Amino acid sequence: MGGRPELTGAVYLLDKQSGITSRKAAAQVAKSFGFTKYGHCGTLDPDASGLLVVLLGKATRLASYIAGETKRYSFQLVTGIMTDTLDMSGEVLEKVDSSSVTSDSVRKALRDFTGTFSQQVPLFSAVRVNGKRGYRLAREGRKPDMPFREVTVSRWKCGKMNNGRISLEATVSSGTYIRALARDIGKAIGIPAVADSIRRTCSGSFSVKQASCNPDSSDSLLSMGEALKSYPALVLSNDDVKRVSHGMSIEAEIEGISVLLNKSGEVAAIGKGLGSEIRPVVVFAT
Q: Are residues 40 and 102 in the same domain?
């Protein structure tokens, strides 16, 4: 509990609660362990909950390797309502009777949202348009044309309709907006719809089951080596650690990304195997 671990970098798995921004939640973790430099992989909306992978110290340089290509979410699809934020926290723009919507009609619509397709980014988002973030433009009363992104969605799970709400789960590619999915599913069934109770349950190889609701649990604190365990690892000789620390390639028959460790098991670098050699791409050893 609390105190700075004997680490220059670490990864913390936080079960973020609703009502707080991802940045503030990450800051609480950093403060608990005495880190001044911190970040996180994948922003959760303030009203969303679930797994937030917090990067501490030198681990902030590992964001692209730890974030993971996919994330899994659960959420409620609320039919018969549209808000400016595409979730239940926003200003209500429209309300209609949705008693005709069934679980089967939602399941049928989900077929169009399985695989890779184009998704328009919500106005209330951190995406910049002409240099300004979308949510700032929205608060100024402006409605720019938001960009489209290619996203991939799979492994849908669909519950039963209950008073216009239905529970859904999906695995999505990085950058997918659950609120936009809810909006577009509503369009597909001909009824306005928004998302509620958005919860991230997995991010890459990490699960919310590994996370803590508190910002200071040692059980949810991982060393950089532990956080990178999904990659192949190679233990280097002292001489090779020195070479890597100077940005020099070393001989090794390996391809793709690998974790380069010193003899103490600490991460010396992230390397990219080129078949007959490994080139360091992120160096920690000095």
A: no
Q: Identify the helix (H) or strand (E) that includes residue 283.
A: strand 277-283
Residues 43 and 143 in one domain: no
Sign of CA dihedral 48, 53, 232, 64: positive
**107, 111, 196 from 114: Cα distances, Å:** 11, 5, 20
Contact 117, 148 (CB under 8 A): no
Active site residues: 45
CATH number of domain containing 239: 2.30.130.10
Residue 7: band (very low, low, confident or very high) from pLDDT cuts 50, 70, 90: low
Question: What is the C-alpha separation between 286 and 279, in angstroms, rounded?
Answer: 16
- Count of domains forming the chain: 3
Please say whether the beta carbons of 87 and 194 come within 8 A: yes
Q: Domain of 208: which CATH number?
A: 3.30.2350.10
Query: Domain of 15?
Result: 9-68+204-224
Q: Give the model's pLDDT for residue 5.
A: 46
Query: HSE on the CB side for 253, CA within 13 Å?
Result: 0
Task: Output the pTM of the full model.
Answer: 0.90
Which residue intervals of 130-273 are DSSP H helices? 134-139, 178-189, 224-227, 238-245
